[in-house]
Amino acid sequence: MLRITSLVKRYGDGAPVLQDLNLEVAGESIVSIIGASGAGKSTLLRCINRLVEPTSGCIELNGVELTSLKREGLRRSRRHIGMIFQGFNLVDRLTVMENVQCGRLGYIPYWRAALRRYPAEDIERAFHLMERVGIAHYANKRADELSGGERQRVGVVRALMQEPQILLADEPTASLDPVTSRQIMELLQSLADEFKLPVLINIHNVAEAKEFTRRIVGMRFGRLIFDGPPDALDADAMHRVYSGTPAEERGHVHPDILEATA
Ligand SMILES: Nc1ncnc2c1ncn2[C@@H]1O[C@H](COP(=O)(O)OP(=O)(O)OP(=O)(O)O)[C@@H](O)[C@H]1O
Fold first, then answer.
1. Ligand 1 touching residue 16 (CB < 6 A)
2. 140 Cβ below 6 A of ligand 1
3. What pLDDT does 249 receive?
4. Which CATH class is domain 1-80+200-262?
5. Bridge-partner residues for 169, per DSSP?
6. What is the pLDDT of residue 256?
7. Is 60 buried (19+), middle (13-18) or exposed (0-12) by CB count in 10 A?
8. Domain boundaries along the sequence of the chain
9. Using CA positions, which residue lies closest to atom 1 of ligand 1?
């Protein structure tokens, strides 16, 4: 269970990018986060894995308060937070197996990773997961020899190798063609059920969010302004999520707009 309470994030002394944000996500739930560019979706995911330091508020994952963790505690908790990226973030010159084993870096001694002497159980687990997502036959191929969809499957397996308690996916299908994109969304949906994981996906493709996730959260200027099933995301809700500008949100309406509407 992920529980976010009163989360605020400001970069420097700017206006808050996340404003008093509250969100709970149970295990086995796949949740899409939608919202216009700049709404704060990536910042939210980054606050969860502490790539970005929250200004205030609390983020709890399975009872552990992530926001107060330091050094070793943070390192331990981070290894259970699987990240999936738009650009896959693979090491091109490494093989699929080596990339996948990067998911174990928080668990094994450095020398093992450096010498590529991976524990037998990690190799077995990697093959099992690669078979599950259909890339086992590529185990010894270099990552840069794969298609985008195959590379994203490597990214998914790497995240699963972390024994994650949550998966955070930042635009995981934005670099993929429509067919492959749907396959990856379908995969994430089935993995959420199978591994009983909360999965949070930042996504611009609202049609895919509606088709593959049972809960959609809409952000606007750092606030959650929609939280419901796909059916509830009607034209009116879409307008609320996607309309407006940051200036209007602060109550500063441009004079041209006032003139145009007079
Ligand atoms: N490192 C940073 N320093 C300062 N401001 C930042 C930083 N990262 C993001 N921002 C600002 O925070 C706001 C929210 O950005 P964020 O990337 O979280 O939005 P987003 O909803 O993920 O957008 P997109 O859909 O375009 O990726 C934006 O105004 C952005 O300029």
1. no
2. no
3. 64
4. alpha beta
5. 84, 201
6. 43
7. middle
8. 1-80+200-262
9. 11
Q: Residue holding tokens 């298609």?
A: 147
Residue 260 pLDDT greater than 50, yes or no:
no
What's the first-to-final CA gap in the chain, in angstroms?
49
| Cβ neighbours, 10 Å, residue 225 | 14
**Which of helix, strand or coil describes residue 187?**
helix
Please, are residues 83 and 159 in contact by the beta-carbon 8 Å criterion? yes
For residue 30 the two structure tokens come to: 């796949």
Structure tokens that stand for 140 in this block: 């010894």
Cβ proximity of 220 and 241 under 8 Å: yes
Tokens of 162: 């972390």
Contact 241, 35 (CB under 8 A): yes
State both tokens at 133. Answer: 């997502």
User: 98 or 256: whose pLDDT is higher?
Assistant: 98
Among residues 232, 254, 253, which one has the least CA distance to residue 241? 232
23 lines ligand 1 (CB under 6 A): no
Using most ligand atoms within 8 A of CB, pick from 18, 41, 53, 203 the residue to mutate for ligand 1.
41
